[in-house]
């Protein structure tokens, strides 16, 4: 029997970027807020220190900061007619766990979506005719425009101390930036990070081909910076170690560094860690949630925590699972196309390559995840899709994110992987290669979705989320096109040798590909096409606000976190300025 | 006994690494530039071999033979086991990870398709035990009754190649999956921080030219553009 606790003003479930931002904005509005986090607390001053962080085995190989699959995982199958089996250890994607969530180990590539991305279905229909969109491609316009989100993108840029080169400042083109980006109200808070050798050669080659290269925006401050919360960030040291872990210099943005220090001293905020929320308490009649039930993993005790307002800000899978379990919104059925919860699961379709420059010295261990040059010429509607046979696209980048010795080595095809001659090959190629990536969009498909697994359960006895997902013909055509363009730039870089890698036909749950999972509780214009409205308020429960990439109607050709953070501020503004004054639906269905 | 002289000889080779690395132009550790102090004995005292704590004797023999085949001694490094890789594997399989920590181990267990990833109930430690048993049973059948560690060097290479290519037909075990895991953990041992038992004397890092922990490169990126940055690599223990 759950012990019933005293009602509090607001609960935040999941303390990643969205959760931390919402907790901060709600306490500023005067609410008493409790943050619930199923993982441990992660205090940078204690945990993210040297020499502890410089341990590739601990963080990159053994995945110390990632979700504990013995407690909770998902099941997976490629198609609706297959039997889903549990993911026993995550591989393709790596959701984080603990305070900071996935916002600790992310690569900090910090993008905005294109203005046309937010109205992609309309844009395609206008340009190519409504009939050109296949029936199976269940894309939707976002219920919010780029212009509406822009001030919130700007706030999130400043929170994170983003480094970059503006390409469009209030409508005025700026040389050296991304000419395709939506208008920015203000410049980036910090200048771009340094350009590595590979990315510099890429820049020159791309320019020679008539493309428009620019430094990738990154949430890694290139210089000491004080963010609007009054927190001082350090400058990136280009240590090349922060992939899958944190930054001891406090240069790479994370909820732990950029927001939590303020919340930790805020009397209106209380953090409870190692507590696992098992269900949302839903009053369907009243169209509101009354609180949550959680198990304290440190004591085994079960509690009911009533709350006036609930923010659901776990990862894509957790958000979807909570709505499905509570029955908030109709579960999606791919056979009929009816229902919304679990619909439009999307991913990032990333293909890449590497180029070798024999005899050159790249010092590849000097790097930062955002030390990259990109072109955006083949993203979204930046190029004409007439007669291409696919929609979507992505940016193409040359990256120098560091080269840790276990996972950061790459050899040309034909070189031995072990035995006689292998070490000589490593010694020859390690220091003279550079990597490429295409950040392909995934436009939703009818058969890619999430529901509850009929067999497998988590450690708290709840059914796992069952993910049904495969790459589509559109994805493959889009990706092959991007790879072809990428190969053109690589050739112009004149490497000794290069390789490009198209994606295999079927999506596989291992090895690592991208943690850019999206959808499941998408936002939209009415309850028939979405789980939450334009302010991320659940259609079925007016005091429930769902945050994170689970609200994306589809995934575009950029890393999702920039948009995720902008949406958090956008939603927080609606809650604090509209909802709290007059609790009820902010959009009338 | 010739059996004993082989590891001894390899140990000496390992001890001389700083010199060979210098000769190969890899790293110039400060201590390597100084003449070695005169020693009253021609050979340094023999180091006690580290005991295996997880693997059985038969398993340990397999792992030593396997890592020495994957990482043979040459001018760039001593053999895998002399670099501590077998000890690394022993310790990893005995760690929480080796015991299946943070792994979803609830049934029913079913084979699934390759796209669905690892679906066995076995922990990594159990997986290696089963894999070694299956590999030895296959080499006995294929190479005249001999376990893998009793094969000559050429046959060991051929046997691992057959596993890698999926041509070795293990009974009731996936040879290719076993090779993939074996290769992966061997590389992790050769390149991870020496604190875990492998990468002894940072040979893996020296081989690559990886500087290890100290990594404040903001002032070095431009200074070392197209120029090799060389530093004596430093590990966690160097700061402890």
Plain-language structure description:
The complex is a heterodimer of chains A (589) and B (240). With 589 residues, chain A is an alpha/beta fold. Chain A has twelve helices and 23 strands. In chain A, strands 1, 2, 3, 11, 12, 13, 14, 22 and 23 form a nine-stranded mixed β-sheet that branches. Chain B is mostly helical and 240 residues long. Chain B is globular. In chain B, 40% of the residues are buried. Residues 1-42 of chain B have low confidence and may be disordered. The chains are: A alpha/beta (589), B mainly alpha (240). Chains A and B meet through helix 3, strand 5, helix 10 and strand 19 of A and helix 8 and helix 9 of B.
Q: How many H/I helical runs of chain B?
A: 9
Total beta-strand segments of chain B: 0
Kindly estimate the percentage of residues of chain B that lie in beta strands according to DSSP.
under 5%
Number of helices of chain A: 12
Using the alpha-carbon principal axes, give the shape of chain A. globular
- Major sheet size, sense and barrel closure of chain B: none
Helix vs. strand class of chain A: alpha/beta
- The helical percent of chain A reads 10-25%
